[in-house]
From TrEMBL:
Gene3D superfamilies: 1.20.120.1220. InterPro entries: Peptidase_A24A_bac, Preflagellin_Peptidase, Prepilin_IV_endopep_pep. Belongs to the peptidase A24 family. The keyword Transmembrane helix applies. This is Prepilin type IV endopeptidase peptidase domain-containing protein. Residues 9-112 form the Prepilin type IV endopeptidase peptidase domain. Signal peptide: none annotated. The chain crosses the membrane at residues 33-50, 57-76, 96-120, 141-162. It holds the Pfam family Peptidase_A24. Keywords: Cell membrane, Membrane, Transmembrane, Transmembrane helix. The keyword Acyltransferase does not apply.
Amino acid sequence: MASIALLVVFPFLMAYAAASDLLTMTIPNRLSLALVAAFPVAALALGLGWAEAGSHVAAGALTLLITFAMFSFGWIGGGDAKLAAATALWLGFEVLADYVLLASLAGGLLTLLIVYARTYPLPGFALGWPFAQRLLDRRTGIPYGIALAAAALVVCPMAPLWRAALPA
């Protein structure tokens, strides 16, 4: 059961976050809440001790504190802050630095690509796509949830929770 949560639910929610941010420029609160609600189920099923579970909660709380400071300065969106914190809850401190580094690199690359794409007019075949118009509008932000989700999917197999669920 816990293996299914780790191998299906977490990646599905990450993919959903990326797609939602790309298509609507929002990451629904219910998605971050689903990640937070599913974590204790997976932690209990995998037999995580109180200390290790507490460490995961601390990683999520620290990430929330830092990302909400970034949100208050207008550097990232609120949905990005909540998604990063909920993801840190699942990953824990052991791979948190890897996650942050990868998300930063992916986010920087994504930003460069979108800023570059915004220098060109939208192709005729895409004029009827509201998400494409929104994405290439210079007044909108960058769907950073894509970078956060991609980094999470790359790093998660190295996280303690996954190592506990998957045979060596």
